[in-house]
Amino acid sequence: MWAFCLHSLAREYGWEFFRRIVLPHPVRTVRAAMAARALDVSGDRVALFPGVSECRFGGAGSIVGLGFCLKPIDPPCPAGRFNHDCAYLETLPRSEAANLPAACRQCAIREIGTLALRAGAAVYVMTSAKDILLDVYAPALGEGRFSAGLFVLCRYSLKPFAVGLLAAGVRGWMFPFEKGDCRDYETWLRADRGIKEERTEIDSPSRGAIRNILLDAAKDPASAARFEKRGHVLYPLAASGGETK
Questions:
Q1: How do residues 70-105 score in pLDDT, each as one tens digit?
Q2: Distance (Å, whole) CA 132 – CA 134
Q3: Which of 33, 48, 80, 129 is the most exposed, having the fewest neighbouring CB atoms within 10 Å of its CB?
Q4: pTM of the full predicted structure?
């Protein structure tokens, strides 16, 4: 984790993290770093509930983050790959009635994103570390926009990612990819720039655990009819047009 942080200090992401998170909240960040360092990331999930026994997930303040590298390559994602877009989730409910493209039928982002909508949670297709800082960490810390999260990412990134979440006050779960993930800083850095030829995969136990968390948090399906994209994040809207609570 410390090697990752030191490497990042030479990058724009590192400067922005230091300016937006570390300088305004040094004690909080140090505590987050120490807690992240102590995490056991060898299992099939990592729970982030320091000081509490559980995490209240679902509704406003909840977010699901999924790596862009989950997008299909063959056939290719109709929305493109290194971006925050999802052609299926952004056109709900109309897309449910249409014939799904082959790429969408096999996409974990479509499946998990649909369940997140039922749970009233925002969905974020994660790309670069800088965007994650600006779209998740900073608004969570500065505005309290997010307090609970479920994220799927490279095992290599789990501890550094946890520092940002804990410093921002976000609690929840992190699930590592089973295949196709980055295993070292150089590979991670290329992926952070959008150079990622492998498609990542989530193993069956993790996919089942994610499904159960979202189903447990699900509301009446009619309460969240579609997503509205604001910036890079998809927020659930109720049938009446307001954001779900």
A1: 999 999 999 999 999 999 999 987 766 567 888 999
A2: 6
A3: 80
A4: 0.91
